[in-house]
């Protein structure tokens, strides 16, 4: 895998080839391997190693980027030429800032507003060294569980070792390596299904047997689902269901989204939108989070309190967005304004976004079992899918339940029910949370991984019953 020293040598070669005012080089890539199974049999095993170098050049306020995965002299010369030629034909960008130097990227220019977390190691030799045989052994355990319950299983066991780095001509250089293992399991019965998914930089945190048993139990327990009418129910959302809907509001926690008036937070900064028990952080240093501690320009990521006791406190800023907001008439409506280390690589049209979401835990966390026991009538939801936005300003979403939806009555799970379509506002949902669990690292299919709790929510709106 590409090392920091090797990347530094490549950057030096690129810098010598360029005639631009400024040069920035992003490195990304690594090794990825995957074992896929279906119908209780492994049917695919693939492995790939690839590294990409992305070169951005600047000429008098004009900037452009070009990329290659070939590092020989001719390829590097060609990618530099492409980036320069593209930059020279762009219109000047009045908001383009000089590339940050090492001090600015580290936040030393304004320590009073920065809270840059240290991150734990996210590289584990055991994960990097996973072999096809080890993944096959994990799949064997999953298939054995399916066989015991007379189910059909499908899914993926993958492992990866990755790097990303940034170097620029103003002396900035930063590098990050990490590993990640992931298991996704679906268990299928005649008229029901169950699902579980988990990932971690440390493969020791993943137990294929436990995940398979949980998915299988959901498929078995939801068999012969009954149909109950659509309506407003108390729901218990497992963490995967929580993150898949919450993820639809996080693009809006962006200074550029506020400026463009495409955020549901426009005109709502500093207002109480959610319940008292909702506090949300973006925290790359959290021990259950993953990813690099710097953004697409090399600026160190700040720990940001987005929501505090239901009140929207801050959004995140790339460098140029922060400068634009400072000049705008709405600066007092955007919260504290400074680059927070959440920008995407330039040039881009989206600005920035929080990517390391952590929900604060409640004072008195409840397990899912305790939530069920305290529910007289409700629905337990494993996961959601096919989610789409209906009303961007009210954050009204629609989607469906799947892979384990259960009726709860008298404090007990009474069996599976047919899946529902929902139409529900995120503002309403996060204003009606009765109980929460201990926040856990969760992953779904509709949004990126987060640290979120299970939630018990009042009056969740199911609008129709599906046909499966």
Automatic annotation (TrEMBL):
GO molecular function annotations of the record: metallopeptidase activity
Domain Metalloprotease TldD/E C-terminal, chain residue ranges per copy: 231-463
Pfam families linked to this entry: PmbA_TldD_1st, PmbA_TldD_2nd, PmbA_TldD_3rd
Domain Metalloprotease TldD/E N-terminal per the UniProt entry, residue ranges: 23-87
Any GO BP annotation: proteolysis
Signal sequence coordinates: none
InterPro entries: Metalloprtase-TldD/E_C, Metalloprtase-TldD/E_cen_dom, Metalloprtase-TldD/E_N, TldD/PmbA_N, TldD/PmbA_sf
Region (Disordered): 93-112
Domain Metalloprotease TldD/E central positions: 144-222
Transmembrane segments: none
Family: Belongs to the peptidase U62 family.
This protein's name: Peptidase U62, modulator of DNA gyrase
Organism expressing this protein natively: Candidatus Sulfotelmatobacter kueseliae
């Amino acid at each position: 895998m590409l090392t920091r020293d090797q990347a530094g040598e490549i950057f030096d070669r690129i810098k010598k080839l360029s005639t631009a005012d400024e040069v920035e080089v992003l490195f990304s890539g690594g090794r990825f391997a995957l074992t896929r199974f279906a119908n209780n049999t492994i049917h695919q095993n693939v492995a790939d190693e690839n590294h990409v170098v992305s070169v951005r050049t600047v000429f008098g306020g004009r900037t452009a980027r070009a990329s290659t995965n070939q590092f020989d002299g001719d390829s590097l010369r060609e990618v530099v030429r492409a980036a320069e030629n593209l930059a020279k034909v762009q219109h000047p960008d009045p908001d383009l800032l000089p590339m940050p130097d090492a001090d600015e990227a580290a936040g030393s220019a304004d320590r009073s507003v920065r809270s840059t977390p240290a991150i734990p190691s996210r590289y584990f030799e055991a994960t990097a060294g996973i072999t096809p045989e080890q993944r096959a052994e994990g799949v064997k355990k999953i298939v054995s569980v399916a066989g015991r319950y007379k189910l059909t299983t499908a899914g993926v066991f993958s492992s990866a070792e990755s790097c990303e780095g940034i170097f620029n001509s103003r002396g900035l250089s930063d590098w990050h390596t990490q590993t990640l293992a992931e298991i996704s399991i679906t268990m299928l019965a005649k008229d029901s299904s169950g699902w579980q998914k988990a990932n971690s930089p440390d493969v020791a945190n993943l137990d294929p047997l436990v995940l398979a048993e949980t998915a299988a139990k959901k498929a078995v327990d939801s068999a012969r689902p009954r149909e109950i009418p659509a309506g407003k129910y108390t729901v218990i959302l497992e963490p995967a269901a929580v993150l898949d809907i919450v993820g639809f509001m996080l693009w809006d926690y962006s200074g550029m989204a506020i400026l463009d008036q495409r955020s549901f937070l426009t005109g709502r900064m500093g207002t109480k939108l959610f319940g008292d028990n909702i506090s949300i952080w973006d925290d790359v240093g959290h021990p259950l989070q993953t990813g690099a501690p710097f953004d697409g320009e090399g600026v160190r990521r700040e720990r940001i309190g987005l929501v505090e006791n239901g009140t929207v406190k801050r959004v995140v800023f790339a460098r140029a967005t922060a400068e634009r907001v400072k000049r705008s008439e709405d600066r007092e409506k955007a919260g504290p304004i400074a680059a927070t280390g959440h920008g995407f690589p330039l040039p881009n049209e989206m600005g920035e976004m929080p990517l390391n979401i952590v929900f604060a835990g409640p004072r008195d966390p409840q397990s899912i079992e305790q939530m069920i026991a305290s529910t007289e009538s409700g629905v337990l939801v494993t996961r959601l899918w096919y989610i789409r936005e209906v009303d961007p300003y009210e954050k009204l979403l629609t989607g469906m339940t799947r892979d384990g939806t259960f009726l709860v009555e008298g404090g007990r799970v009474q069996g599976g029910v047919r899946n529902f379509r929902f139409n529900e506002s995120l503002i309403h949902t996060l204003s009606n949370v009765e109980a929460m669990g201990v926040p856990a690292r969760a992953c779904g299919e509709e949004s990126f991984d987060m640290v979120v709790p299970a939630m018990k929510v009042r009056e969740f709106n199911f609008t129709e019953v599906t046909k499966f």
